[in-house]
Amino acid sequence: MSYRDARLLHGEEIDVDVAVVGAGAAGIALAMEFAGDHARVALIESGDFTHRHTTQFLYLGENVGRRNHSTAFSRFRRFGGSTTRWGGQCRPLDPVDFEDRAGIDDSGWPISHAQLEPYYRRAYRFCKLCSCDFAPAGWLESFGGALRVSSDLLQTRIYQFSHPTDLGQAYRESLRSAGNIDVYLNANLVEILTDPDARRVTGLVLASLNRAKLTVRARHYVLACGGIENARLLLASTGVRPSGLGNDHDLVGRYFMDHPYFFPGFYQPAHPGLDKSLYVIEGYEQVGSRQKVHAAIS
Asked: Which of 151, 181, 190, 222 supports an S-S bond with 41, CB 3.0-4.6 Å?
């Protein structure tokens, strides 16, 4: 396996079994599933091992509607993706998140929580979580029990911390030692090629900021660039479909959701036997190593 700089590969045509675009959490996890396999894998990353402002600026975009962060503020375009800066906080979705709920337009998924469960367990191992258990009881027992809240509408939920948090660092050598995976750095996907009916992907056109271009052809293709960039890449591929790939119903990129932030106050338990330390993050420098979990009232 090798790390290759796309800036030096102008004109190359690369043939592999699987092409994965994006070397963040999802892309690295998928590539690692093939490590040591017979399949040839190309893991394609826009950034490099270090942060570069010129590459990060490719994330810029207009944020309309409710005021929020810039599209280039909280995501990082480099090997390891946003895990190079995140706090490593992990929690699976709840069963209700997949259900069709009255009063919520377009709710419900074609898959269930139960179908995802075995994949979640593999993800816990990949993220190096200390346990597969997210039930509050066991975690809270050694911390004086759950904080008492008066409403039956509130409950304690557990988050675990991935450690080490930078998955690019955590798996860099494992990828290097895999004989069937090549990582292409400084390689920006600029167009997804398809057949005349846009039913099948036939290739990827990559370009570096120094104008070097190369083409990747594979049996299987995966976009692993996150919700915003996956949509951008599909909408930018207009060679066959002027409205973008998969966008015949004008739905690509229509269902974004960000973290809502509210600061209503703070909660100080009066009972001396209740330890609130599990509910508090004293500093992100200790999460994952010294602080394995975080409890939150939901």
From this structure: 181
How far apart CA 55 and CA 186 sit, in angstroms, is: 8
Closest Cα partner for 139 from 297, 295, 273?
295
Own/partner pairs, 98-105, CB within 8 angstroms, 24+ separation = none
Alpha helices in the chain (DSSP H): 25-33, 53-56, 113-126, 136-141, 167-177, 226-236
pTM for the complete prediction?
0.91
Q: For 151-207, write each residue's pLDDT tens digit.
A: 778 888 999 999 888 999 999 999 999 999 999 999 999 999 999 999 999 999 999
Distance CA 112, CA 118 (A): 12
**Amino acid letter, 256:** F
Residue 27 burial (CB < 10 Å; 0-12/13-18/19+)?
buried
C-alpha distance from residue 54 to each of 77, 78, 87 (Å): 10, 11, 25
**What residues does 90 pair with on adjacent strands?**
160
Where are any strands of DSSP class E within 6-79?
A: 13-21, 41-44
Contact present, 159 and 131 (Cβ < 8 Å): no
- Other CB atoms closer than 10 Å to residue 55's CB: what's the count? 21
Instruction: Produce one character per residue of 124-149: b if its CB has 16 or more CB atoms within 10 Å, e if not.
Output: bebbbbeeeebebeebbeebbbbbee
269 Cβ neighbours under 8 A, 6+ residues apart: 147, 148, 276
What is the CA angle 231-236-210, rounded to 5? 115
